[in-house]
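Data deposition worksheet. Section B asks for the primary sequence of the deposited chain exactly as it was used as input, without tags or linkers unless they were present during the calculation. Section C holds the resulting structure in token form. Section D is free text for depositor observations; keep each observation to a single sentence. Incomplete worksheets are returned to the depositor.
Section A, Depositor: J.P.
Section B:
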Amino acid sequence: MLQCINNMVFKKVYEIVCLIPKGKVMTYGQISELLSHSISARAVGWAMNCCPKKVPWHRVVNASGGISTKDLTDPPELQRFLLENEGIRFSEDGRISLGRYQFNPEKRAI
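Section C:
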């Protein structure tokens, strides 16, 4: 079982993820950048592995538009299923077009 740090930085990650609308995604690195790199993209991934149930974790993907879950908490098929149910389509190689589906909030809104 993962031990998660319940700190303010993780809470900020969850706040950002909760802003992602249905049918859109953000990347781990993008969230890191919005937090002025106070947490690395890899650490954003760890935060997502232990996020509260209300957080739409499935809307966070890697920098190439791929799914990076490795059965730590949920299988990759679940993330794809949830995204497809929101209207997101995957290419034949299993990636999402970030040009089409990436959510880009204004930093001042965060």
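Section D:
The mean pLDDT is 88.
The CA atoms of residues 21 and 97 lie 16 Å apart.
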